Amino acid sequence: MEKVGIIYWPKGGNVEKIAHKIYNRFDEQYADIFDLTSIEVIDLVNYDRLIIGGSTVGAEIWQEAKANNKWVTFFNNLDKINLKRKKVAIFGLGNQVLYPNNFVDGIAIIKKEFDKRGAQCIGAWPTKGYAFTDSIAVENDKFFGLAIDEDTQANLTDQRLYDWIKQLKMEI
């Protein structure tokens, strides 16, 4: 089996909890988990596949992000390595009730950064079963990655994770 690196941000909340649930579904000899500040970008070359996770933030916040934003630093450092054809899966957390107009937009932002560097994004996930108005993370009725709403659909999270990881293992 190929080595999987799981990277997430922010620490201490639902994103971290979900990242660890994903990690626990892999054999630990084939997977490592890091928060965004605990791994050097150069170390990503040690992984055949990457799973990247973040929280939903409105697109306007990402666009106005300060230079010291952890994601901005991480994305800028991606230029130091070759990501061509590396398979990357993305999961994002959001609240479709409080933020229905930009639900899991963070998935699209992360995808765009990896796309720019030639990575192959996998793990598209159907929008069926979600109730939101708009998301830049959707194309052809699928999210670019797994959408999780721990605030209003926590009861669906474990099954979604199980199904998505099964899908990823087939795509990998």
Order of H and E elements = EHEEHHEHEEEEEH
Question: What is the residue-mean pLDDT, rounded to a whole number?
Answer: 91
Principal-axis shape:
globular
Terminal CA distance reads 9 Å
> Segments where pLDDT lies below 50 for 5+ residues?
none
The tally of strands reads 9
Describe the structure.
Helices cover about 30% and strands about 20% of the residues. The mean pLDDT is about 90. By secondary structure, the protein is of the alpha/beta class. Strands 1, 2, 3, 4, 5 and 9 form a six-stranded parallel β-sheet that branches. Strands 6-8-7 form a three-stranded antiparallel β-sheet, with no helix packed on it. It has one domain (about 5-170): Rossmann fold (3-Layer(aba) Sandwich), CATH 3.40.50.360. It has five helices and nine strands, in the order βαββααβαβββββα. The chain has helices at about 15-25, 60-65, 70-75, 105-115, 155-170; strands spanning about 5-10, 30-35, 50-55, 85-95, 120, 125, 140, 140-145, 145-150. The protein is globular and about 40 Å long.
Give me the secondary-structure topology:
Elements: E1 4-8, H1 14-23, E2 31-35, E3 49-55, H2 59-63, H3 70-77, E4 87-93, H4 105-116, E5 120-122, E6 125-126, E7 138-139, E8 142-143, E9 146-148, H5 154-171
Parallel strand pairs: 1-2, 1-3, 3-4, 4-5, 4-9
Antiparallel strand pairs: 6-8, 7-8
